[in-house]
């Protein structure tokens, strides 16, 4: 798995060590196959009522990709956003090389 620096922003809400490890694992798995094409990765958490909003911003060499998901459980929000992240980046790379 690719070692990358993942920034986590969560204004007003503490990010537990368990959630940080979960983010690093899920996002790392989603992005690992893209290697050097990945630049800065930032995961943003915010609250929307009783739900957690997870936004993942990935700076590629060719463009930026953003995925968002809202769920009651922040870990599940990360899971769902990361699951779509790999496909979205593959599409961006394909479009850039076409």
What gross morphology would you assign?
Answer: globular
The number of domains is 1
CATH architecture grouping: 2-Layer Sandwich
Please report the distance between the alpha carbons of the first and last residues: 27 Å
Looking at the structure, the CATH topology is: Double Stranded RNA Binding Domain
Mean pLDDT: 89
Widest beta sheet: strand line-up: 1-2-3-4
CATH superfamily annotation: Ribosome hibernation promotion factor-like
Q: Beta fraction of the residues?
A: 25-35%
Secondary-structure-based class equals alpha+beta
CATH class call: Alpha Beta
Strand and helix layout:
Elements: E1 6-9, H1 17-31, E2 38-48, E3 51-60, E4 64-71, H2 74-97
Parallel strand pairs: 1-2
Antiparallel strand pairs: 2-3, 3-4
Quickly list its features.
4 strands; single chain; four-stranded mixed sheet; globular; 34% strand; 98 residues
Explain what this protein looks like in three dimensions.
The protein is of the alpha+beta class and 98 residues long. It has a single domain, classed as Double Stranded RNA Binding Domain. The protein is built from two helices and four strands; from the N terminus they run βαβββα. It has a four-stranded mixed sheet with strand order 1-2-3-4. The protein is globular, with a radius of gyration of 13 Å. The N and C termini lie far apart (27 Å).
């Amino acid at each position: 798995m690719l070692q990358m620096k993942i920034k986590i922003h969560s204004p007003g809400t503490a990010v537990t060590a368990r959630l940080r490890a979960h983010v690093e694992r899920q996002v790392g798995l989603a992005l690992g196959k893209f290697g050097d094409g990945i630049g800065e990765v930032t995961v943003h958490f915010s609250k929307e009522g009783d739900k957690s909003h997870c936004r993942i911003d990935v700076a590629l060499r060719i463009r930026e990709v953003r995925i968002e998901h809202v769920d009651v459980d922040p870990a599940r929000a990360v899971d769902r956003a990361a699951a779509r992240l790999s496909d979205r980046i593959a599409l961006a790379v394909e479009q850039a090389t076409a």
